[in-house]
């Protein structure tokens, strides 16, 4: 039984290893660059605001305005998406022989690639949230609030529309929107070929990124974003099922 379980696990881990060899270090370099750029802009903004208003808790929020954080976040997320998209196209060309020996169905490979891509996309969100927490902690230290004002994190994420959409707290509608957006991008990166293979992911990313920052509460932009993500997910699944049927029919003819 133990041998059988290891045999089942190894092919999936092998696909992950092949994808990570092609893309993971590139994604890590992008995330490191994102951290450096946002950190540099933060220190510049902090110095500018403190020089203009003094070190005061009432002006800490000024540091988070015009800091180009949304632009840097979406640029990084878009580049990660392109790397994942490119990775799937390179996977068979560079490791086709190994993939063929794993004896996984197209559906199984698609699921493994989708999970890998989704985790990489989620990693960008996680890093951005951690960067913001670090920035807020740094500001608390500057104005001597220390651990006496934990509510400053709450106000920061509710007072800034981008931060609130990034980490929606108790707003389940935006959580669903973000999860569907990540899922749709991951499935597009891992999806089978077909017409609109390049137009569809580009439209998905541009539209969703444009409508990402919105007011509190479920609004029309959230509904449209969810609708677009669901359409893309259904489209990718339909393409995958169609390709599996064609592949199955071809195998029957060969046999």
Question: What's the short story on this structure?
Answer:
By secondary structure, this protein is mostly helical. It contains eight helices and no strands.
Topology:
Elements: H1 2-53, H2 69-101, H3 106-142, H4 151-159, H5 161-166, H6 172-190, H7 199-210, H8 220-254
Helix pairs in contact: 1-2, 1-3, 2-3, 2-6, 3-6, 6-7, 6-8, 7-8
Low-pLDDT ranges: 1-8, 250-255
Strand content: under 5%
What are the secondary-structure elements, in order, as H or E? HHHHHHHH
Total DSSP helices: 8
What structural class do you assign from the helix and strand content?
Answer: mainly alpha
- Mean pLDDT comes to 76
Q: State the share of residues found in helices, binned by percent.
A: over 70%
Number of strands: 0
Radius of gyration: 22 Å
Q: What general outline do the C-alpha atoms trace?
A: elongated
Kindly report how far apart the N and C termini lie: 32 Å
Main beta sheet: strand number and arrangement?
A: none
How would you characterize this protein structure?
With 255 residues, this protein is mainly alpha-helical. Helix content is 80%, strand content 0%. The protein has 8 helices and no strands. It has helices at residues 2-53, 69-101, 106-142, 151-159, 161-166, 172-190, 199-210, 220-254. Helix 1 packs parallel to helix 3, helix 2 (69-101) crosses helix 6 and helix 6 (172-190) packs parallel to helix 8. The protein is elongated, with a radius of gyration of 22 Å. The protein starts with a helix and ends with a helix. Residues 1-8 and 250-255 have low confidence and may be disordered.
